[in-house]
Amino acid sequence: MKTITSYELLESLGRERLSPSFFMRDFLFSEIAAWHGLQNIPDHPEQALAVGRQLCQELLEPLQTTFGRIHIRSAYRAPEVNRFGNENKLGCASNEANFANHIWDYPDAHGKYGATACIVVPWLMDHITKGGRWTDMAWWIHDHLPYSTLCFFPKLAAFNINWHEAPIRRIDSYTDPRGCLTKPGMANHAGLHADQYSSFPDLSRP
Question: 25: alpha, beta or left, given left = phi > 0 and alpha = psi -120 to 50?
Fold first, then answer.
């Protein structure tokens, strides 16, 4: 796809299907961009589409098929939008830190690509209301899906989920228990953790 230089091309980009349930338009909305009059449009549409398809097909579709509808809170960010969010303390890391994360169409410092979406899973919200923990979902994803990083937040039990060409497989949290739940080299990283999510449904794919 060409560089987005017209409304018609942007409309076409939004209609690109990334997986059975998701289209690129689902990932382009940005409250920062909407409020501050910025364009949240990738500089390199084909690259954004390529990694977006991996994120959707490998991670988001299995989650939605297993747990029901998921809500996209924040996903793709254009460098201009992310930079504005970082400089104005709106919850965005630096552009360099977000390459291959929220900025899908630029590689990280190692030349690898990735894509992040911040999502809410209503099923997980209900699970926590009934006494469950966010860590239950973290371990389920760790055991079942090829994620790279997860980061959980206090509001709505939202979490960032990242697909990456060179997955790290690290889980962090800003909600209790805060910090790193697991990463390569930690004693709890290997093996299965089924005792942590015994009430969860089995993995289902579209």
Answer: alpha
Is 143 inside any structural domain?
A: yes
pLDDT per residue as tens digits for the range 50-68: 999 999 999 999 999 999 9
DSSP β-bridge partners for residue 115: 163
For the chain, what is the domain count? Answer: 1
Residue with tokens 């979406």: 117
Q: Write out pLDDT tens, residues 96-127.
A: 999 999 999 999 999 999 999 999 999 999 99
Cα–Cα–Cα angle for 99, 100, 106, nearest 5°? 60
114 lies in a domain? yes
C-alpha–C-alpha distance, residues 71 and 35, integer Å: 20
